[in-house]
Amino acid sequence: MIIYDLACDNEHRFEGWFRSADDFAAQQERQLVSCPHCDSSDVRRVPSAVSISTHPSAPAEKQPTQRSGGTGTALLPAGTEVMAMYRQFVQAMFDSSEDVGSAFADTARKIHNQEAPERPIRGHATDEECDALRDEGIPVLRLPSVKKEDLN
């Protein structure tokens, strides 16, 4: 899944979840993407304004709220709320993706090269395999290994 920050012609900001960039483009072309605030179908992608920065030795209340470039940052909820949000995210990833195990890099390449059906996948890959995929222009997201049974 790809999450895009979107805005309508009335500057209402919202996010949309799509299977791929092509899926977003196809839905936008058919005017299936509309603003949840005003129902406008004149929608465009906008840069994400969220970034998360931490410094291991800095207390949370002293963390910067703005980067030097003027881009906003997000403050994370504390303790158990963060873990609950992470569990929800990982659960959503489990529920909407196919586990390809150690064949992740090969499967990602096949999908990228349109040699296999496009679908969300998850699995295992080494640092070197992930670096190689990125070098080939294949986006990957590395997450800590979490077992489904550990999400409860």
Describe the protein's architecture and organization:
The protein has 152 residues and is α+β, with helices and mostly antiparallel strands. The chain folds into 2 domains: 44 residues, no CATH class; 73 residues, no CATH class. 29% of the residues lie in helices and 15% in strands. The protein contains 4 helices and 5 strands, in the order ββαβαβαβα. The strands form 2 sheets. It has a 3-stranded antiparallel β-sheet with strand order 2-1-3. It has a two-stranded parallel sheet with strand order 4-5. The protein is globular and about 45 Å long. It starts with a strand and ends in a 17-residue tail after the last helix. About 14% of the residues have low confidence.
List the helices and strands and how they pair.
Layout: E1 2-8, E2 13-18, H1 21-29, E3 43-45, H2 79-95, E4 98-101, H3 104-112, E5 121-123, H4 127-135
In short:
The protein has 152 residues and is α+β, with helices and mostly antiparallel strands. It is built from four helices and five strands; from the N terminus they run E-E-H-E-H-E-H-E-H. It has two domains: 2-45, no CATH class; 79-151, no CATH class.
